[in-house]
Amino acid sequence: MSDAALPTASTSPETAAPMSDAVREALAVSLRGCAELLPQSDWVKKLQRSEATGQPLRIKLGLDPTAPDIHLGHTVVLNKMRQLQDLGHRVIFLIGDFTSLIGDPSGRNSTRPPLTKEQIEANAQTYYKQASLVLDPEKTEIRYNSEWCDPLGARGMIQLAAKYTLARLLERDDFTKRFQSNAPISMHELLYPLMQGYDSVALKSDLELGGTDQKFNLLVGRALQAEYGQEAQCVLTMPLLEGLDGIEKMSKSKNNYVGITEAPNSMFAKILSISDEQMWKWFTLLSFRSEREIEALKAEVTGGRNPKDAKVLLAKEITARFHNAAAADAAEADFNNRAKGGIPDDIPEVSLSGAPMAIGALLKAANLVPSTSEGLRMVEQGGVRLDGTVLSDRGLKINAGTFVLQVGKRKFARVTLA
């Protein structure tokens, strides 16, 4: 979508006042890894005013609790919030319990089924707890947009809708494509950008963060603040983090994600699996190391250092953040043990009956494969080991006993078969 198809982000002339070192540092922190900062000159003025008055800026991030867990892709904007929080600004973690009832249409080519109130409440219970693994809870203001959206009522909703035109809403790329292809657009979806924008009015935010797919919605907030006579917020968008496949956006539905509540061993191993090229983007967006440190590390790799060394540093940093340093060290040791063909300590124990049991059925019963046919396929490909020995016979039947089954590099089970 071209910028012409977005709500206007009016640019003001560059401020004539020279930037102090503190403001220059704050701007550099703001720009690190970001896709866009609109308008940058306005943000500099806000930073300068904050420095002069000692009044922290109000920085907003809204997340709809559409799923119970947060993955590393979500933490890209949370990391930016934490960086600005560490500069002394007030961050507002907004849980969209009202907007979740609508369902964000961003990037959708069909209507998203709205969640029930019960689903939203269940998901919201874990959202902030998990976000607090990145944000400083003592410096975070947590809000729910039902606080001001519910009291609007029908009259308030009509008055809000009067402040924005249908033509501008239909300029949104996803709405445009659906309209042109005669795909349905429900009326409630048109309300979503308005409600998200109204959050900025209610919170009097100075800056709103979001992924690049949220740019339109964030700029609607800027436009509505002007309509309500407020100083318009600035908008900072962060790139969408590609998942473990290095292609698609990180998503649970695509099974290319790293959950922030995953076990340390799993988290560490997944991060080690990303490509060397992808690793540097992850460093920029996920690491708390300075850009100077990252560039120095990149220079070492260019100069011949094994890129795996850098990847291990990244994996240990992220694992330690969501667990602790000891867990990160143990995960590294577990990974190295597996790489040498060793058996990890924390594998599941499974007790089964029915010996002798066909290998395909045994693998499925031990929850190592989703189906018997998949188990047989893994045997054919040499991906199954019994006590370290590779199996190749599809017709093999396993007698009673206790043994370790392994599928691929990461799936293990200690099975007792009777």
Automatic annotation (TrEMBL):
The keyword ATP-binding applies. One of its GO terms (cellular component) is cytosol. Coiled coil: none annotated. One of its GO terms (molecular function) is tyrosine-tRNA ligase activity. Keywords: Aminoacyl-tRNA synthetase, ATP-binding, Cytoplasm, Ligase, Nucleotide-binding, Protein biosynthesis, RNA-binding. Its EC number is 6.1.1.1. GO terms for biological process: tyrosyl-tRNA aminoacylation. ATP binds at K252. It catalyses: tRNA(Tyr) + L-tyrosine + ATP = L-tyrosyl-tRNA(Tyr) + AMP + diphosphate + H(+). A motif ('HIGH' region) lies at residues 65-74. Catalyzes the attachment of tyrosine to tRNA(Tyr) in a two-step reaction: tyrosine is first activated by ATP to form Tyr-AMP and then transferred to the acceptor end of tRNA(Tyr). NCBIfam families: tyrS. HAMAP family: Tyr_tRNA_synth_type2. This is Tyrosine--tRNA ligase. It comes from Vitreoscilla filiformis. The gene is tyrS.
